[in-house]
Amino acid sequence: MPPAPGGAGGSDGTGGTRPAKAAGGSVSSGGSGSPGGSAGSAGSSRAGPSDAVESDEPLLSARVHRPSDLLRLGLGLLAITVVLIIANFAHGTTAGLEQDIDKGTQQAPPLLISVTGLASSIVILLVPVAFAIERLIKRDGLRIADGVLAAVLAHGASLAVDLWVAQAAPDSVRDALTKQITDTDLTTPVHSYLAPVIAYMTAVGMARRPRWRVLLWAVLLLNAFAILFPGYSTLFSIIVTVLIGWSVAYGTLYAVGTPNVRPTGQTLLAGLRRVGFNPVSAKRVEDADAFEGTESGDHGRRYLVTLENGPPIDVTVVDREQQAHGFFYRVWRRLTLRGIIQNRSLQSLRQALEQEALLAYAAIAAGANAPRLVATSELGPDAVMLVYEHIDARTLDSLPDEEITDTLMRAAWRQVEALQSRRITHRRLVGDALLVDSSGTVYLTDMRAGEIAAGDVVLRMDIAQLLTTFGLRVGAERAVAAAVDVLGPDSVADSLPLLQPIALSRRTRTTLRRLAKERAQRERDAVIEASRARKDTKDHDESGRTAHGAVQKTDRKSLRAEKNAEKRAIDDALEEAREEDLLAQIRQQVLLVRPQAPIEPARLERVKPRTLVTFIAGALAAYFLLSQLTQVQFGQVFGEVNWAWVGGAALFSACTYFAAAMALLGFVPEKVPFPRTVVAQVAGSFVKLVAPAAVGGVALNARFLQRAGVRPGLAVASVGASQLFGLGSHITLLLVFGYLTGTEHTPTLSPSRTVIAGLLAAAVLVLIVTAIPALRRFVSTRLRSLFAGVVPRMLDVVQRPRKLVTGIGGMLLMTLLFVMCLDACVRAFGYDASYASIAVVFLAGNALGSAAPTPGGLGAVEAALIAGLITFGVPKEIATPAVLLFRLLTLWLPVGPGWLSFSHLTRKGAI
Fold it and tell me: Which residues span the membrane (predicted)?
């Protein structure tokens, strides 16, 4: 029977209080529903009714993808990167280390080295075979198959690294990973026989078995000694080999999954008997939102257990795999948010058990209604269970809207008030965490993510979350009124700075995004309907005048009047269809009660995702540029520069702003001054340094057109049309010039293998994007939002051929001027490159710069242009300063005039 209202306790595992819904097949007490079911035999060893007990649950998956494997893969790749960076920049240190090893090698007895080499060659083959035989005897062949797959992939990875070191790696890296054997031969950078063995032994799990683990390390040390001291390898080569094998093994395990060892229902029944219960049956309760991956991770597997005597109980089983669910999401939240994510250990199940039990007892002491925790126990080394009293109740999500009364909401707020009086937070006040029984009593569950002795910020977050949860069901007005009745206006008003999506649960944010998309779609439908109705009215009026013979030649004033009337009709329809989002409605309702309430959102983000991506991309670009700059003698190069070509490059760069203005105005049917448009394009040079190139330019042009009298929707559509045609012309020119670069050195018109390989790579990339649903949705959403309303706008432009020619001509002229600028920069340093090759390099580099998250494509453009010029035969000593000169003329020098232009347009109210 349910506990008295004074009882409390809650955890993430109390989902068993929901109505039990069985799924899947029955599992008898002697059987197992998953590979982890072997533990169920512990229950069958007991005499009595255990043989008659059944557990009704879905079959567990045979394999699971562990986040820990993905984390180890990332750490391995990071370690390889660090080793290569050290080898590249600390060349003197690595050379000194090799000399010390060589001195030690000379002192080692030759007989010892020979015996060690022979023993390591034999043992490194025998140990994997012996372990495979042992696993096959124990019928664990799948684990051996995983190891073989990892070994094959590690062999391929080692060969790929060998090829990269031999052909493309910096000389310092090649010297650190190889040793000179003869005048023409070098040692292999990565040992293609050792990496597969390491990958195999890691993937099959030898490291988790003490005896085999000792043998594994002995083999590795023996082999390292055998190849390092005779001079067949370097220390860095061995380290990279070990890291490659280790990383490939964990990457393989994450990709194919590892055998599932989660405890089954039979293991649960045996554990219940050990703590004094006599279970009759257990039903697995479905978790309706488990797929949504909330911040607190997986809530555990829930069971409704019927006992021989007494009421049923709710049991939650938490194992190590479930505890790690959502690990990367929680790490990301902890890095990006300012101290509102509690510290939870992912290593100790006992700490998770103690955290949940503590919150259950703390909630009871606070006087909140919640299921009472009656027992806890371990289920082997990798799982724990928590036993709660069963409550016959329904979740708030399962209630129809008409049953969510003001009385019910006030009852829920009183439970939150009880928790907050003792500074306890729930951290997940969503619909499935609130239970309502037949008498209307509200219970709080799923408190695993909560905290005791919480700070003011997280306490207010609970209020903001529950306001949003109720607002989604009954509206902002009723939700705020119920909260104010219980908590008072001051407490509700203090939560307004936390009323922002990032402070809400992941599930709530998903719902708000879906509602925002539906709201935007309704606004678009209203505009389309208004436009269609206006057109039908206009056609009807024209047909009526034709019937009465009253058709006359329409003058400009009447056309302008009709267009203005159509604009007003569309604006009115958009205004009528515009809806405020739920969070804004809640703020307005709170301000009606407490007008002086703080509404400025609290800054919860420590770092924004775009900032982090920009920093990483900038660091990689800086590393590339520094590695290139260290190999260029700038004094000698700039001493021989041809300043006439530099002047020509500066002139070409200046002319690009006129071409950009033509490209924009060609897709704007309305009249916009050309000189001011040129000034706006110059201002874009300043904006590019504070925003990614593809974002800053679009926003500035859209704002400029709006201030010039173009309606907001049409302004965005015009910029989108310009971007769409620019993308098409960019791809077309890239294909044309790419084809020409392949035919310019051949007597036929057949393209080069490089061009064919590039086209095939692009085709494969397109296939990958279209085949993966997540990537396909991401690309389609971005393109749809960028080019929304473009097609109707293009119909207006097509009716004015002069405008269309101006726009397309401006795009082609702008591309031509940029190519001529880059060509002049290359010629300024005394190299005469093919014009088609220069065009391909610029078009490819510009595309990468637009996609890069760094401002102005900083770093990405330089890296792409330098690499492209070197690929087409331009010496590194020429390509690097030429690209730097090009970026100086097109990115850095225009910043000053761009800032002046931006300030001028701002003062004039033009942007």
Answer: 70-91, 111-133, 145-166, 186-207, 214-232, 238-256, 612-631, 643-666, 678-700, 720-742, 754-775, 804-826, 833-852, 882-902
Please tell me the distance from the alpha carbon of residue 303 to that of residue 314, in angstroms, as a whole number.
Answer: 6
DSSP bridge partners of 163: none
| φ, ψ of residue 192 in degrees (nearest 5) | -70, -5
Q: What is the pLDDT of residues 361-399, one digit of tens each?
A: 999 899 999 899 999 888 876 788 899 999 888 999 989
> What does the alpha-carbon distance between residue 227 and residue 234 come to, in Å, rounded to a whole number?
8
Residue type at 309 in one-letter notation: N
Three-state DSSP class for residue 752? coil
CA distance 434 to 573: 40
The answer to whether 49 touches 38, Cβ cutoff 8 Å, is no
* 3-state class (DSSP) for residue 220: helix
The two beta strands, 279-285 and 54-56, are parallel
Residue 192, C-beta contacts closer than 8 angstroms, at least 6 positions apart? 155, 158, 159, 162
For residues 858-868, one letter each, b for 16 or more C-beta atoms within 10 angstroms of the residue's C-beta and e for the rest, the string is bbbbbbbbbbb
Q: Is the pLDDT of residue 607 over 90?
A: no
Tell me phi and psi for residue 186, to 5 degrees: -125, 160
Instruction: Give the chain's mean pLDDT.
Output: 74
First to last CA, the chain: 67
| Inter-residue contact 502 to 605 (CB < 8 Å) | yes
Q: Is CATH 3.30.200 the right assignment for the domain spanning 261-354+369-390?
A: yes
Rounded distance, CA 479 to CA 231, Å?
76
Q: State phi, psi for 749 to the nearest 5 degrees.
A: -100, 20
Instruction: Give the Cβ contact number of residue 5 at 10 Å.
Output: 17
- Per the CB < 8 A criterion, the answer to whether 879 and 670 are in contact is no
pLDDT of residue 878: 86
Q: What is the pLDDT of residues 422-467, one digit of tens each?
A: 999 998 899 888 999 988 899 998 888 888 888 888 899 999 999 9
Q: At 432, list the tokens.
A: 């499935």
pLDDT tens per residue, range 619-651: 665 665 565 555 555 555 556 788 889 999 999
Tell me the residue type at 572.
D
Position 81 scores a pLDDT of: 85
Q: What does 624-680 look like in DSSP terms, one character per residue?
A: HHHHHHTT--HHHHHHT--HHHHHHHHHHHHHHHHHHHHHHHTT--S---HHHHHHH
- Domain definitions of the chain by residue range: 63-259, 261-354+369-390, 401-534+569-611, 653-908
Alpha-carbon distance 84 to 594, whole Å?
Answer: 60
C-alpha distances out from residue 346 to 343, 352, 353, Å: 10, 8, 12
